[in-house]
């Protein structure tokens, strides 16, 4: 009985080289299809997080405006916005930079700070933030928030 099993193990062969190459080729094709989809989904989630961050800062700015009758002057880190209206200024998920530094978010007020402000991303076509620049709009764009216009794509 034992000889039967030993003979059977010796007669069985493993996979041929052709079979192994076909399996490797199939895995490579699947990876080539899936990896770009995962990267695009990640960039789209970062853009969604950016939009949420801009809206949260806008809410804090509006609360500041209600209490002080004007918007704070940049940079936001030096104002009473932090302890009273928001816990922390968000970090750009696409570039990983702190609020107010390039290529992250920027905050600007016009000459009359009581009227308006602009929150904006500063991504570029190449370099830091490039996946988000492409995911925000098929033609490539940054995201801007103004009180009167809301969220908009800006080239």
TrEMBL record:
<protein>
    <submittedName>
        <fullName>Prepilin-type N-terminal cleavage/methylation domain-containing protein</fullName>
    </submittedName>
</protein>
<dbReference type="GO" id="GO:0016020">
    <property type="term" value="C:membrane"/>
</dbReference>
<keyword id="KW-1133">Transmembrane helix</keyword>
<keyword id="KW-0472">Membrane</keyword>
<dbReference type="GO" id="GO:0015627">
    <property type="term" value="C:type II protein secretion system complex"/>
</dbReference>
<dbReference type="InterPro" id="IPR012902">
    <property type="entry name" value="N_methyl_site"/>
</dbReference>
<keyword id="KW-0488">Methylation</keyword>
<dbReference type="Pfam" id="PF07963">
    <property type="entry name" value="N_methyl"/>
</dbReference>
<dbReference type="InterPro" id="IPR045584">
    <property type="entry name" value="Pilin-like"/>
</dbReference>
<dbReference type="GO" id="GO:0015628">
    <property type="term" value="P:protein secretion by the type II secretion system"/>
</dbReference>
<feature type="transmembrane region" description="Helical">
    <location>
        <begin position="20"/>
        <end position="39"/>
    </location>
</feature>
<dbReference type="InterPro" id="IPR000983">
    <property type="entry name" value="Bac_GSPG_pilin"/>
</dbReference>
<keyword id="KW-0812">Transmembrane</keyword>
């Amino acid at each position: 009985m034992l000889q039967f099993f030993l003979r059977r193990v010796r007669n069985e062969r493993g996979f041929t080289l052709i079979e192994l190459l076909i399996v490797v080729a199939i895995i490579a094709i699947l990876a080539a299809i899936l990896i770009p989809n995962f990267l695009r989904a990640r960039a789209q989630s970062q853009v969604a997080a950016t939009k949420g961050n801009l809206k949260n800062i806008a809410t804090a700015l509006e609360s500041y405006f209600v209490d002080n009758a004007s918007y704070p002057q940049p940079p936001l880190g030096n104002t009473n916005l932090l302890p009273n209206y928001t816990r922390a200024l968000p970090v750009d998920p696409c570039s990983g930079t702190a609020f107010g530094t390039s290529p992250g978010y920027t905050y600007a007020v016009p000459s009359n700070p009581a009227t308006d402000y602009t929150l904006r991303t500063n991504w570029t076509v190449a370099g830091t933030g490039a996946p988000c620049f492409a995911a925000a709009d098929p033609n490539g764009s940054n995201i801007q928030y103004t009180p009167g216009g809301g969220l908009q794509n800006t080239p």
